[in-house]
User: What shape does this take?
Amino acid sequence: MQQHSAPEREFTMRFTSTPRGARLARRLVSHRLNDWGHPYATTVNETLTLITAELTANAVRHGHVPGRDFHVQLTLNESTFRIEVTDTRAEKQPPTASPSATDSLSECGLGLLLVATLADDWGVSPRMAAPGKSVWADLHTRTKGHPLAHRMAPEPTDVDLLLATSSLLRGDPGSQPEDSSHGGRRP
Assistant: This one.
């Protein structure tokens, strides 16, 4: 078994398994990252906040057990952030393979596709002390001589494609392609 050193920084909290709990978790992770020297508008903060939003939304939607909370743990160890969301539903597991971009017509799984695109690594592990599972994602930062150096942004085309696909599936009118015959304006 691999032995992990103690994290340099750690934030742990339990939240109610509701949309409000997921929203609060996302905000507190963003605030904690800001406190740790990664301001709100940085790529590290925005990326980890988005990953947290997806993992906590999945915990509420797919891992909810009435009367049970979900748990969030954010750690920084050397130059790697790990966000881990634990719920109490062991029988509902996310897919073990990375979600496929070819299944873009599915209404489920886009959140994990986003996590797989943004994170350097992610996975699922069983909960040790009780029934349930932990879904985690790692994000590596580059440290060029300074401990608070920021990670390079992922290829924008990957994220843009995910967001555009998601908007089209929801039927957002603002996400339709521009019509070139009207000079880029919609009639």
About this structure: Confidence is low (pLDDT under 50) at residues 144-151, 172-187. The CA atoms of residues 30 and 49 lie 6 Å apart. The longest strand covers residues 70-77. The chain has four helices and five strands.
